[in-house]
């Protein structure tokens, strides 16, 4: 995993990139294709040489050290329904229902034209880990699952790691991969700015 560093001016750039990726893929779907290639698509790998409509597995892994207490970072991340407060320009608004395991949220994406609904499937507060899945939405994805974990660093700060897995068509894999990384970047940037 590679440590990431961002500056505040990236907010606007990230928002524009997110809007472009979402708008270029919003009309495509992924349902109804019985063929499915198992392929882990990581940064710097090429999309496999398969038919463009083939379904492939995509994995995105990032981490970032934050100069804040781990428990403070966890209190922000674990507030599942308030994602618009820590996902920066990726999210226009968020509305949550419930708390802890089985909590749900609806995210209106940047630009306001698309939304996704996500549900917590695991939240372990003592270990500062949360996993959730996308249960509906306008993005061309299937089996979307993301896990966020916070660890205490030896210096007393926080290391945040994000692991995202989903299925999409080969022709959309790069755009969806970049979109997931930009979502991670928005999370890290918001947490870094919150420490200043």
User: Termini distance?
Assistant: 25 Å
User: How many β-strand stretches?
Assistant: 8
* Percentage of residues in DSSP E strands: 35-45%
**How much is the radius of gyration in Å?**
16 Å
Q: Specify the number of helices.
A: 3
Derived structural class = alpha+beta
Write the layout of secondary structure elements.
Elements: H1 10-25, E1 36-41, E2 55-66, H2 70-77, E3 91-97, E4 104-109, E5 115-124, E6 129-137, E7 142-152, E8 158-169, H3 173-194
Parallel strand pairs: 1-2
Antiparallel strand pairs: 2-8, 3-4, 4-5, 5-6, 6-7, 7-8
Helix pairs in contact: 1-3
Question: How does this structure look, described?
Answer:
The protein is an alpha+beta fold and 196 residues long. It has 3 helices and 8 strands, in the order H-E-E-H-E-E-E-E-E-E-H. An 8-stranded mixed β-sheet has the order 1-2-8-7-6-5-4-3. A hairpin with a 5-residue loop joins strand 7 and strand 8. It starts with 9 loop residues before the first helix and ends with a helix.
């Amino acid at each position: 995993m590679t440590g990431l560093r961002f500056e505040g001016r990236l907010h606007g750039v990230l928002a524009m990139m997110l809007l472009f990726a979402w708008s270029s893929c919003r009309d495509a779907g992924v349902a109804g294709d019985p063929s499915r290639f198992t392929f882990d698509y990581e940064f710097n790998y090429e999309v496999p040489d398969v038919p463009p409509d083939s379904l492939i597995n995509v994995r995105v892994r990032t981490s970032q050290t934050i100069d804040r207490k781990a428990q403070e970072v966890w209190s922000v991340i674990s507030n599942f329904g308030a994602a618009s407060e820590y996902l920066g320009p990726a999210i226009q608004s968020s509305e949550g229902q419930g708390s802890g395991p089985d909590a749900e949220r609806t995210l209106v994406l940047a630009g306001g034209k698309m939304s996704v609904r996500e549900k917590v499937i695991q939240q372990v507060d003592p270990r500062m880990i949360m996993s959730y899945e996308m249960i509906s939405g306008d993005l061309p994805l299937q089996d979307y699952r993301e896990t966020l974990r916070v660890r205490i660093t030896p210096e007393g700060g926080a290391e945040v790691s994000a692991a995202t897995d989903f299925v999409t068509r080969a022709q959309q894999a790069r755009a969806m991969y970049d979109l997931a990384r930009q979502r991670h970047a928005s999370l890290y940037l918001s947490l870094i700015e919150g420490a200043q």
